[in-house]
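Final report, closing paragraph on structural work. Over the funding period we assembled a curated collection of sequence-structure pairs, and we close with a single example.
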Amino acid sequence: MNLRGVFERWFEFALSKKAEIIHMSILFKHGEGFGLPNTNGLECLKEFVQLSNIPKLTKLDLRDFTDRLTQVEFLDGMPSCIRDQLQLLRLTSRPVSMYKRNFELLNDLSIQLVNIKHLQLELNLYDTKYYISRYTHRLVEVCGSLEKLVIKFLSEPLWRLLGEEGKTETYNHPERELSQKYLEISGYSGSDLEREFTLDLINNTTTHLKVIVVACDEESLARARLDFEDIKLVSFLVI
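Its predicted structure, as stored:
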């Protein structure tokens, strides 16, 4: 049986067992790739995965590792009855172009994530910082029931490790207030960009926000304590 047939059989088996979590990963070897049946990524994925067959889906993990189909396009194309029951959403973006595209799409579309209570974003803050911040704010705004926001900073690129300084950008958001109750910052290294990004989120929150900062090492932990010493409800960890 070819690779596609194996995938289909395993997916049908998972659905038949009423799986609550399904991880899909596509690996490439020797320049050969396993693709979905046609060129319209969203439509063929809906057809192949059959989201209508997962009526109890409450947790979704979306990862952008290519620049073809954005997370916002995928969410917008989901049946509303499925999208509206999602409670936990985890989004990872690596391609630089994705942050700008996702932000622009969120502004253009009327998508609302009405029941998302836990939102986790894995962000590459060292590229397209301006759009990352705006995308994050806009995404939080469309999650009307959000209680917990987790930001995980991805590893620094080589040019940062070699000591080259990045340019500082200001965010200058419109006057919009966010309403999450709990903010977790993970992978904090203490860079100026991470500090500004985190303070921007905190300062735009209307509720009494509980903050936890998970630092990369003891040195980063010391910087975090200094960076957020004026925040009332904040605790610190190191991993």
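The beta strands are 59-64, 88-93, 118-123, 148-153, 182-188, 210-215, 234-238. Residues 58 and 85 are 6 Å apart (CA to CA). We thank the funder for supporting this effort.
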